[in-house]
Design a protein that fits this description.
This protein is α+β, with helices and mostly antiparallel strands and 202 residues long. It has 2 domains: 55 residues; 125 residues, SH3 type barrels (Roll). 32% of the residues lie in helices and 26% in strands. Strands 1, 2, 3, 4, 5, 6, 7, 8 and 9 form a 9-stranded antiparallel beta sheet that branches. The longest helix has 49 residues.
Length: 202
């Protein structure tokens, strides 16, 4: 009786050990495999997303040309300008002439295009003028200057009074024409009315 009891007990112990071992292995495999698999991928993805992106180095020589050399013209003001009428078609730009030079865009001064500019004075070693346009805009101060050889299509031009430009005489593309004195005086009078010019033309 005791022997059978001992044998039965031993069998029960072996069965219990076997069941414990199989359940422990399966739980360990499932927890280890599933947790390792589920946590491994997001962590790897997190590390890849969290890695700072290396920005490319800026290219040399890519800056606008106007940043590397003085601009042919730049926005300025009327104060300090010396008004004069002294045109002379001698190859040099002079007050009283319409010349062609590079003018920056108002909304992006790093870019621009060649435009006719009426020169009406000087400021030190620079010329002072206003750009001409063939487009009439009623919502901005303009004055008609008529037609001239500065426009190959013979279109009427208008002086843009609100924007004063300082012009580098060494970067003027070409002389366009001499503006008649009467037209010149009309533009200067309009500038005086808009900007409060204190010096009369001479």
């Amino acid at each position: 009786m005791s022997g059978m009891s001992g044998s039965r007990i031993a069998g029960l112990v072996r069965r219990a050990l076997t069941m414990f071992g199989s359940s422990g292995g399966s739980s360990g495999g499932s927890s280890g495999g599933s947790s390792g698999g589920s946590s491994g991928t997001p962590q790897g993805t997190g590390r890849r997303r969290g890695t700072p992106r290396r920005e490319p180095a800026p290219r040399s020589g890519g800056r606008p040309r106007t940043d590397q050399a003085p601009a042919a013209s730049a926005d300025s003001e009327l104060a300090g300008a010396r008004i004069e009428y002294s045109p002379s078609l001698d190859g040099d730009a002079d007050p009283g002439e319409v010349v062609w030079t590079w003018v920056p865009y108002e909304d992006d001064p790093s870019q621009g295009k060649d435009r006719p500019v009426m020169i009406f004075g000087r400021r030190g070693n620079r010329l002072v003028g206003v750009a001409l346009t063939s487009k009439r805009h009623d919502n901005e101060p303009q004055i008609a200057v008529g037609t001239g050889s500065w426009d190959r299509e013979g279109r009427p031009s208008y002086a843009k009074l609100e924007r004063i430009l300082d012009v580098d005489p060494t970067q003027v593309r070409r002389e366009g024409a001499v503006l008649p004195r009467a037209r010149f005086d009309e533009v200067v009078a309009a500038l005086r009315g808009l900007h409060g010019l204190v010096e009369r033309p001479r």
